Amino acid sequence: GDQEAGEMGLAAVPGRQAAFRQGLAAAVRYAKAVGCPRIHLLAGRVPLGTDRAAVAGEMETTFIENLRYAADILAQEDMIGLLEPINNRITDPRYFLNTPHQAAAILEKVGQPNLKLQLDLFHCQIMDGNLSRNLETYFPLIGHIQIAQVPGRHEPDSPGELSFPYLFELLESLGYTGYVGCEYAPKGDTLEGLGWLHSYWESRGLKHGGTSKAAE
The Xylose isomerase-like TIM barrel domain covers which part of the protein (predicted)? Predict the structure, then answer.
């Protein structure tokens, strides 16, 4: 979409289907060039001057239509499409897709196996909390995980509401083998801010880089 015009994705925005398809085609080209098999299909924002409840049905219909189209295009490239709920309490008040429950319901209606849930624990905590149960409930749908401490959106070991060692071990126990994206704003230097990761590896008996000391 046109970010300067206030757009943040187009997949659920009525009347912007042609632009969504153009953007998807460009994203596929970029993804193929860098070897990335997953593309986040941003839902977009409730149009300015409209009531969320009044347009929710039309936006969901548009979203489902575009997601089915995207699923077919991505299947041809052996790629996964991702839906990320973004909280509308702090980050983006007009964003259409806000909770994992809403995303799961839409994924069920679309019914395509190469569309998955991109679960950002920062957004999930703000909207719903109940992270352990939500991870367990929606685990079969999850295609990618992102993290940031709440409420500051900084490093996982910064002061906040979430216990990331517990959450990481929960993900391991559930059998998660994908990436965990660190989508946070470092409080200072990026490399210094990664000290939390080194400490976590050491607490798990791993060397820096995530390799097992026993394996060495």
Answer: 9-199
